[in-house]
Amino acid sequence: MHISFSDGFPTYHLANVVDDHHMQISHVLRGYEWQVSTSKHWLLYQAFGWTPPIFGHLPLIINPDGSKLSKRQGHIHVEHYRDQGYYPETILNFAITAGGGFHLSNENELNDMSDLVQAFDITELKTSFSQLNFVKLDALNKLALQSRLKIQPQLMIKDAKDHLVKTLGQVPLTDEMLLFVLNLDRINRITDLTINPDVQFIWHSPKPSTCLGQDILGEIMEIINSNNEFRESNSLIRKMTKRRKTSYPETMQKLRQVLTGLPDGLPIKDIYFILGKEQCLERVNNSLIGAKIKSPTS
Questions:
Q1: I need a surface site. Which of 13, 82, 85, 192 has the fewest CB within 10 A?
Q2: Are 132 and 98 spatial neighbours (Cβ–Cβ below 8 Å)?
Q3: Pairwise CA distance, residues 140 & 134, whole Å
Q4: 10-residue mean pLDDT series, the chain (298 residues)
Q5: Can you tell me the distance from the alpha carbon of 173 to that of 178, in angstroms, rounded to the nearest whole number?
Q6: How many angstroms separate the CA atoms of 240 and 243, rounded?
């Protein structure tokens, strides 16, 4: 229905009041911009001899930048969040944190609909504009993801495989390894597998890095090649840095860059576990070749 008509009759307001009355609406909670219309509705209820509902006007939910939330924005639609890998329970709990109205002992936990019905308290509604906090959205989805991984691990593996096939055309990890990756702190949703930059090294080899000299790369390659366990290789790399009087943390940071293309990110032990010995050797060797090519003495 349209709010204004060319004949000047308040058709929308009439229909609003008649509809709410016949649906036996007891409470009307709506945005504060409707306050100017409430007096019209009240007069219509009086004209019909009907008892009006209790009216409440709520502050608006706004974007992180302070602008008004609009239905024309793509990220206001549930479909947008579903396509981005967010779960229904995430959206439900995210929505209630934006405007308040719930007496919850811990807002950092997921609550189902029945819990939220019991926890609703109109006195807890916020009286000021509420900004959407998308960091909170990811944190809630992480909780939902972890819960599903515990309850339905095989279904989660299937979802992850479907996503990888759709985006990469293949699934280059075993089920066990895929489950390990899904449990990483950096994975808040299935789509993070192919979006989060910290895990892209799993699917794509980085460009050869020459951040470590060829002599150090060569020795690291020998160490990795002669040991099957990361713990053993790590111990020997630590001894190597002590012997060479170089920084162990700096060497490991540069080794991470060789293996992933990033100076920061996952612990080396997790990178080694995900890639495996052979893939680590291949990436170190690629950088070693690059270091030799770059060396003016080669």
A1: 82
A2: yes
A3: 10
A4: 54 92 94 90 96 91 75 71 92 84 79 89 82 87 96 96 96 94 95 95 93 93 94 96 96 96 94 95 93 66
A5: 6
A6: 5
First vs last C-alpha separation in the chain: 79
Alpha carbons within 13 angstroms on the beta-carbon side of residue 293 total 9
Residues 261-276 have pLDDT tens digits of 999 999 999 999 999 9
Question: Token pair of 182, please?
Answer: 């899904």
Same fold flag, 59-151 and 214-294: no
CA atoms within 13 A on the CB side of 224: 23
Radius of gyration of the chain (CA): 29
Candidate CATH numbers 1.10.1160.10, 3.30.465.10, 3.90.550.10, 3.40.50.2000; the one for domain 59-151: 1.10.1160.10
Burial 92-126 (b: 16+ CB within 10 A, else e): bbbebbbbbbbebeeeeebbeeeebeeeeeeeebe
> Nearest Cα to 116, choosing from 128, 100, 129?
100
Token output for 216: 């150090």
The DSSP bridge partners found for residue 62 are 68, 131
Tell me the per-residue pLDDT of 113-138, one tens digit each, with 9 for 90 and over. Answer: 998 889 888 888 888 887 778 888 99
Structure-token pair, residue 86: 């967010």
For the chain, give every domain's residue range. 11-58, 59-151, 153-202, 214-294
Residues 188, 145: contact at Cβ < 8 Å?
A: yes
Distance between CA 65 and CA 108 in Å, rounded?
23
Residues in the chain: 298
Is 214-294 assigned to CATH 1.10.10.350?
A: yes
Residue 168 to residues 22, 55, 146, 200, 273, Cα–Cα distance (Å)? 54, 53, 24, 11, 21
Predicted confidence at residue 44, as pLDDT, reads 95
